Amino acid sequence: RWVLKSPGHRMALDELVGTVFVLERVTYFAGKAGFFTFDLARLLGDFVNDVQIVADFDSYRGRILSRFDEVMTASLKLAPDSAASTEIYLVAHSEGSVVTFLSLLQALHQPDEHPWINHVRGLMTIGSPIEIHHLLWPGLWSERQPALTPSPQLSEQCVIRWHNYIDDGDPIAYELKETRKWLKKSGFSRRLRLKEMTYSRSDLPGKAHIDYWRDEDVFGYFLAKVVHRNHVERGRHVRRPGDRRFARAISWLIPQAAMAAILMLAVYLLYKPTAAALGVQPTTIGGGRGGAGMAVLLLRV
Length: 301
Prior knowledge:
Blueprint: H1 7-33, H2 40-56, H3 58-77, E1 88-93, H4 95-109, E2 120-126, H5 130-136, E3 160-167, H6 177-186, E4 192-199, H7 208-211, H8 216-227, H9 247-277, H10 284-300
Parallel strand pairs: 1-2, 2-3, 3-4
Helix pairs in contact: 1-9, 2-3, 3-4, 9-10
């Protein structure tokens, strides 16, 4: 039930599938070599299952959003008597960012039914596929009927600072370009102040999707700029997370080298029996050169 509205959407999906295929091969050979073990197939399988439940099944999505509302209401009750000053900050990862986003939109649309929304002051999303949902399932919010709009009853203080972090090596997270346009068009941008940060900090593509949790710079920036923004010493400069040294080059080189090795092996396995059938005695050097040449040609194609 993936609704692809244009060739551009289909191309984006094809590129995503192709990227996942390459990354799965890279992690497979890395595991066999003993460098590390990372089950990308399981991670992406779980992700697809989560997407299917949230995007395609209204009843399950409703139960998930209802559960989210219950947790938020219970969290607010844990605050002391001076609940009016209570501040709530949310951290959402992967498909959880979509659930959180949907819940926030619903609460901003109907604040009387979701009073906790008046206490949310910050949102941090990491590895978020919100943009993919916006393009492939527009009915979730952008084409929803009746249209979602922020309630005029919201107080002026109801402003949520939203930081979205994206590692270039993460095959699931994308910049929120179309989502940002929709936020502005629908009026939600006045309540959800979106700031995005894109960088290359993980050496291994694919694994970047879970490396956010171990990145002190990413969480430190959010804590300083959002959670403790009123308590950071004046004049103190907090550096936003940037590229790690050589991470961009290494994350590009690893899948290229892995695919080149796979192609060289495949070409060499075909080269030996073919040469034997033609009565040519292949040498190790000659076979290596021929295999390397064909592998480079196929890699460029």
